[in-house]
Each structure stands twice: as structure tokens, then as C-alpha cells.
Amino acid sequence: MAERLPPKERTKIPRQAMPERDALERAHNFCEVNSGFDLALAEKEAQRCLACADPKCVHGCPVGVKVREVVDLVIEGEYLKAAAKLREDNVLPAVTGRVCPQETQCEGACILGKRFAPLAIGHIERFVADYERQTGEAGLPTPAPPTGKKVAIVGSGPAGLSCAGDLILKGHHVTVFEALHEIGGVLLYGIPEFRLPKDIVQTEVANLGRMGVEFQTNVVIGKTITVDELLNEMGYDAVFVATGAGLPKFMNIPGEHLGGVYSANEFLTRVNLMKAYDADHYDSPVYSCANRNVAIIGGGNTAMDGVRSALRLGAKNAYIIYRRSEAEMPARVEEVHHAKDEGVQFMTLHNPVEFIGNDEGFLTGMRLQKMELGAPDDSGRRRPVPMPGSEFLLPIDVAVIAIGTGANPLVQSTTPDMQTNKWGYIVADEATLRTTKRGVFAGGDIVSGSATVILAMGAGRTAARSIHEFLNTGVW
Amino acid sequence: MNQLATSMFSIVEAWFLAPDIKLLKIQAPLIARKRKAGQFVIVRVHEHGERIPLTIADADPGLGTITIIVQGIGKTTRQVNLLNAGDALLDVVGPLGNPSDIRLFGSVAVIGGGVGTAIAYPTAVALKEVGNFVISIVGARSKELVIMEEEMRATSDELFVVTDDGSYGRQGLVTDMLRELIEAGRSIDHVLAIGPIPMMQAVAEVTRPHKIATTVSLNPIMVDGTGMCGGCRVLVGNESRFACVEGPEFNAHAVDFRMLAQRNRLYRSQEQAALKKFENWLQYALDPTPCCQLEKEHPEIGPRSHT
Ligand SMILES: Cc1cc2nc3c(=O)[nH]c(=O)nc-3n(C[C@H](O)[C@H](O)[C@H](O)COP(=O)(O)OP(=O)(O)OC[C@H]3O[C@@H](n4cnc5c(N)ncnc54)[C@H](O)[C@@H]3O)c2cc1C
Ligand SMILES: Cc1cc2nc3c(=O)[nH]c(=O)nc-3n(C[C@H](O)[C@H](O)[C@H](O)COP(=O)(O)OP(=O)(O)OC[C@H]3O[C@@H](n4cnc5c(N)ncnc54)[C@H](O)[C@@H]3O)c2cc1C
Ligand code: FES
Fold it and tell me: Which of A84, A99, A392, B214 is the most interior residue, by most CB within 10 Å?
């Protein structure tokens, strides 16, 4: 328990750095890179907060986490209360504390950042959430008495899980249907262990289970059961579709079928979900990266996760190939730093035009074209333009394409009265997340397109409110 | 209906149809209710296992069971084939893929090579049910490997068995039989061919000059089976298609078989190593001298050094 320092003293404290594993050591294993603040670091960092009357960080957070109040509680040493305060707006704080792009959200808005480094809100959030988990004192709220209403949630990513958590508290019966054999969505199959340890996700899932949420893995909605069957035959009163944006995009350039060319989804699923990195104990293989040249195409979080996984699988050279410059990379800043520290080679302003293989159909290289930045495009970023005559061959053995994903059509194609947009994403009302089909709601990446964990979680909670209202009033 | 999907998928019956080819009936009521001919499931045997696709050879919605027929060619299929009634599979998901295109074509030749006969069987049944004249050609390397002969006979108007070594039925390849039928002037409006990649390719080449529409069921390596990874992509008519959601059946005359064969060899060295390790373990496990329980329960760990 400590007193707040006077404002002048606060700005004298430098931003506390996140303790992390040595870059060269960690580049060869899948252990978590950041080890987290301890009590002293957390308190010291919290003391930097200027306690603004109108905290900009709260506005910067997509779900409006009451950052200032959380920080106050940390200064007071009330960590469990701080955790409870976090959970009022964010049900997955241990996850978002690790994976949110804080620099463009809460920390990007922090006043301290104008003259000093912004408050390390993400690190504090993570500390509070980990403290709660490690003390095993996550006070599980008691659900309201059963309402007799049943809700089906399709997909177990952050959108589905957060919706399930809120609805179970309202006393509804909640079943989460998941196509894969494990619960967690991208948190499980996409984001690697070294960035988000799987036991964190599993703890959250177990908590939901203890509160009464029913999980059914191995059920593909649209195949095993349709949305109409959920509503009409199985007695569900509402359905929340949170199937994510999992359809991999390829580049449609020659040679994409060569052995050794992967979508990021396949590469990461093999490595994370199927644990190919632990080949002595798990059966799913991944094409060997050991002592080979591996290139990941793209500049987002997925690309960083891919390239850092390749390094850990023993790659001799691990490249990021990105057609714009580093300034335009959508990845979290921390991931880019970590990748560089670990030895990833960045080839920005390069774009592949062809994959080259040998007679047996295995990848041996990639033709790259150099790019320069032209006028800004629709996204406001400067458009990369190929430089004529700049093509050259880069020898590589494994290529991972991480240029984005689209909407998986399985639910939409079997639910014809639920409207989709021209890219196949589900159309849902912004405020209520109602789709055009009565009783069916949708949110997360399957509505917004690939976005973030915090936005998906926020969508899940919005859907829960709106489903609860629908179940109470019966009005559509 | 609750819990049905997540509870273990228990095996109610299992027996060998031929050396290394086993039939298993599995409790999977949701899938049994839904599946159509041509669809498949993805199976995981145990916590450390991989996900492998297997065709639903038959189903009994009343009993809530599905039938799979598995050829033990690598570690995972060999593990499946070690299981018996009373055991269970950890994960079974489906039905995946598009159902077969079942129409009244007229006269249809259904060609099954090896375990492909089991995969073709449900589609043959469905084709027969809508009134097609079904000519089946069942091929195998030798007599002991001929499977489902009686079942196929029951659903066919005519049935031919061919073996590579002539130990049973006619001697030759399924394509020899098909060519003979075509040359004899038998009217064949449609061909369905399922078996090893070289067989399917050879059938495509036989029917191509005669312009006989030919369907094959492709077997690329899969992971999720829901269109999420793209690992199962095949080249059909120079377009990339995901076999798990857009197939597994495609027009044989447009398929790039060479590409498919190359992609299926991607993990050959890892597969061979895994199989060898597993076989060593098996030998060890079947050895009457006692070994530790851990290894029995977790064959994937492999033999440890016991002194
Ligand atoms: C590699 C990678 C790294 C990322 N890193 C970050 C990061 O650092 N920070 C950040 O904020 N965001 C990150 N993201 C984005 C973030 O993970 C997603 O925006 C978020 O997970 C979307 O949540 P969701 O619940 O909408 O869907 P998902 O997490 O995609 O979950 C959808 C679930 O639905 C299941 N499903 C799909 N179809 C069906 C069906 N028919 N029936 C049953 N189940 C179905 C899927 O199997 C999946 O489990 C990353 C994404 C990837 C791929
Ligand atoms: C849609 C579909 C339906 C299938 N239905 C059946 C079925 O009903 N019965 C059955 O026995 N098999 C079926 N298969 C093939 C089966 O999935 C593979 O035999 C299995 O994955 C091999 O796993 P393994 O670990 O035992 O062997 P591995 O060690 O992985 O492989 C052993 C050998 O088989 C080859 N191989 C690997 N994967 C495949 C594959 N997907 N198809 C063909 N060869 C492969 C390898 O190149 C290697 O030479 C089907 C495949 C698909 C895609
Ligand atoms: S198996 Fe993953 S997309 Fe087909």
C-alpha cells in the first residue's frame, strides 16, 4: 500500500521495462518471452500515472476499461480489487494484457506519452490479471437463477467466450460449439505459446466451465448441425455466430502449390494447436525449418508469430518479406522489436512474384520484386509500387503466407436467410449485433473482418446484452 | 442431445476385412444422422495424435453409429487399427466435405482400388438407389486384399474383381477391365474412380479420349477439414481448390495428379521415422516381458531404455 507521489515526482520515474528472456536463448524455445512485472515494478510503474480527471486512456480503450481506477487500486496494493475492476469491462485481462496493440489504444492516448513515455498500461493489466490467476482467487461470480432460456454460441474465440461468460451470469443455459478439438479460437491455434501461454486461455475456459458453460468441441455448425436445427429442433432461443475470419488468403502467384509453401493458418495450427514443435511427443509434422531458410510474407501479428516460430524451429535465416515499409506494418510494435532482437531479418519493400521449386515439387526459392512507396491508397497508407527490373531470386525452403484472412463460409452458406456482405462477412446491426435472421446474432471477426482480441471480446459482450434483452422481451 | 458430441466416440464393433484393413463402427450420433454418401470425418486417436481424414463408409442413424474402414499404412492409421470394440477415439468431427453428386446418369462404372473400394461403396449404394445401372470394378493387389466384394455385389448390376497377381478374379489392373468394357461397346455414361493416385490418374486417361465424365475422390493431406488451413489445396483446371470444403470429389479430367502426389510426399521422412519408432514400440509392447504402464498408455512416447 502506498501513497500517490506528487505529480512532479511521477514524471521523474522512467517507464519500467518489461522483464524478458534473453533474446538469443528464447529464440530457440517456445517459453513465454515476457516474464511480467513483479509487485515492485507494478507499483513503481503505476506511480507514473498522472491521475487525469478525464483519463484519455479510457477513451482510447475499445471497451472503455477504467484504467485510472485500476491503477489507483494497484497503488493501494489492492490487486484483487484491481482485477475485479478490470473484469467489469474486460473478461480476458490476462490475454489482452499480452496481446492488445496498446500503443494505438490506451497507451497511444496517454497524456504522459506527449512528453515522456506513456504509462505501461498493458504491463500493469497483465500484472493484475496474473496476480489474480496465480493466487487462485479469481472470485467467480454466481450466476443468476436459471431462466430456462438456451443460447448457442458458435465459435470459441474471444467473442464467443466473452459472450458465454456474460450470458451464463444472467442465468441462461449456454452451449459453445467449436469445430476444432480444443476451445479458444485464434488464442489457441494462432497466437503461439511464447506470446500467450495456452494455460492462460485454458484457465479462463475452465472458469467458464465452472460457472456452467457447456462446451461441445468437434461440432462444425453448418455441417454437423445447422443454425436452423439449433433454433428449431434443439430448442435454442438464440444463436450467437462468432466464427472468426479464418479463411486463408493465398497470393495467386505461380508455384504456390509447391511443398513447403504454407498459409500462416496451416503453419501456426500445426505448430501451436498440433504442437509440431514438440515432435518427440506429438504426431503432427511440420515441414522441417531446421537449418533452412524460411520466409514469412506479411507485416501483421500473424507474420511476426510465424517468423518467430520458424526461428524457434531452428531456421538458419528467418525473413519477413513485406511490400510496404516498416512504418506501415500493422503488427504490434513490441512484436517487431522482439522479432528483430531474436534475429529475424526484415526485407521491407519487397514482394514475391513467384515461388520456384525443384523436380520433386519442393520449394527452393522465391522471386522477389523491390517496391517503392507511391501515393496513399484507400487505407491512407502509401501504396507500394513495383520497381521495374528489380527482380531477384532468394533461396528459401519454407514460405509462409500471412497476408490476411477472409470469412469462412460454412455457417453463411447453410443459413440462407442470414444476410452477408460482398466479402462474405455477416451483416449485423452495429448497436445490437442482430443479423437479418430472427434470433441470430453475430460479432467478432466474422462481422468486422480480421481485427483484434479486445474488439472481438467487446463484440461478445455487446451481443450478450442484446441477446439477454431479446430473451427477456421476445421482441425482435 | 446434450453431451453427445463431446463425449468420447466409443467403438462398438471392429474387425479386419483384410490384412491391415479394419472396419470400425463408432458411436457418433450427430454425424450418423447427417452424413451423406461421399462425406468424411476427421479423427484424432489420442491427445498427442494427428488429425486424419477418413470416409464415412456407412451409417446407422437409428443406432447412432458410423462405419469407417481404415488401411494401416502409417503411424496414425496403424494406431486406429489397434483399437477394438470397447475402445474409443478421442475426436471425430464431421460430416465434412460435399456429398457425392448423386444423379441418374444412366450407366455408371464404379471403380475401387484397394481401400478405395470402401470409400466408393456408399456412393455406389446411392447411385444405385436413384436408378443407375451400376457396373463395379473392384481391384486389389492380391486375393487377400479384396474387400467389400459381397457388399459391392449387392449394390451393383454387374461386378468384376481384378487382382494384380491374378490370385482372384481376373488378372490385371482396374483400367484393363474398364478399357475392355469400353472397347466392347458397353455404354458407360459416368465413371467414379477411387483409389491410389496413380490408379485414379490412369482411369482419367482411359476415359478422356472417350469423353466419359469421370469423378475422382482426392485424398490430400488435411488438418482441420473446414477450409481454415489450405493444406488440402489441389489444382483442378489450374485453379486452387480446397478439397475439404470444395471436394473431395472433382472432375478427374481437370485434376493435376502430379501435384497431388508431390504434395502428399511432403512429410515422407517424418512419417517414415514416426512409423519406425512406432513399430519398434509395438514389437516391444507385444513382448511378454513386462514394461511400464506409461508406455502402454502412451505409445507416442516410444520405447525407453530399460536396462
Ligand atoms: C496469428 C495471429 C496473431 C494475432 N495476434 C493478435 C494480437 O497480438 N493482438 C490482437 O489483438 N489480435 C491478434 N490477432 C487477431 C485476433 O486473434 C482476432 O481478431 C480474434 O481472435 C477474433 O476473435 P473471434 O472470436 O471473432 O474469432 P476467432 O478467434 O477466430 O475464433 C473463431 C472460432 O470459431 C470456430 N469456428 C469457425 N467456424 C465454425 C463453425 N462453422 N462451427 C463451429 N466453430 C467454428 C473456429 O474454429 C474458431 O475457434 C491475431 C490473429 C492471428 C491469426
Ligand atoms: C477425404 C479423404 C478420405 C479418406 N478416406 C480414407 C478411408 O476411408 N480409409 C483409409 O484408410 N484412408 C482414407 N484416407 C487416407 C488417410 O487419411 C491416410 O491414409 C492417413 O492420413 C495416413 O495417416 P498415417 O499417419 O497412418 O500415415 P502417414 O505416416 O501420414 O502416411 C503414410 C503414407 O501415406 C501417405 N499419405 C499421407 N497422407 C495421406 C492421405 N491423406 N492420403 C493418402 N495417402 C496419404 C504418405 O505419403 C505416406 O506414404 C482418406 C483421405 C482423405 C483426404
Ligand atoms: S484441411 Fe484445412 S483447409 Fe482443408
Answer: B214
Q: What's A120's domain CATH number? A: 1.10.1060.10
**How is residue B118 written as a grid cell?**
470402401
Backbone angles phi, psi at B15, to 5 degrees: -155, 160
Note the ipTM here. Answer: 0.89
CA dist A80 to A40, A85, A87, A229, A247, Å?
A: 16, 9, 10, 43, 39
Q: Is A246 in the pocket of ligand 1 (CB under 6 A)?
A: yes
Domain match, A206 and A110 both: no
pLDDT digits (tens, 9 = 90+) for A80-135: 999 989 988 888 899 999 999 999 999 999 999 999 999 999 999 999 999 998 88
In contact, B145 and B72? CB cutoff 8 Å: no
SS3 A223: coil
Predicted TM-score (pTM) of this structure:
0.91
| CATH for B89 | 2.40.30.10
Q: Which residue of B has its CA nearest to A265?
A: B229
For B83, counting Cβ atoms within 10 Å of its Cβ (0-12 exposed, 13-18 middle, 19+ buried), the class is: middle
CB-CB: which of B1, B90, B267 is closest to A285? B267
Nearest CA in chain A to B74: A283
> Are B25 and B78 contained in the same domain?
yes
* Number of separate domains in chain B: 4
